[in-house]
Amino acid sequence: MSRTGRQRFWDLLCAFENAVVALFGIALLILLLTLFTLANLDRLSPAASIITQVNLVLATGLLLSTGYVLYRCRN
What we know:
The chain is mainly α. The chain is built from 3 helices and no strands. Helix 1 packs across helix 3. The radius of gyration is 17 Å and the shape is elongated.
């Protein structure tokens, strides 16, 4: 029986699981640094606070997506 496109996609992602783990670690580091920056949000300029908030959204999305890939590959 031939494999579907979805199965081949997950097989390809799971083949690079070490890279996904590294990306997860980088995303976690970015998220932690962003949370430390949020502690001083009142001292930042308006542009820096907007960049920090955008960074928070993007780092959270990257962390959740790489976490889902790792969860899917290990099951």
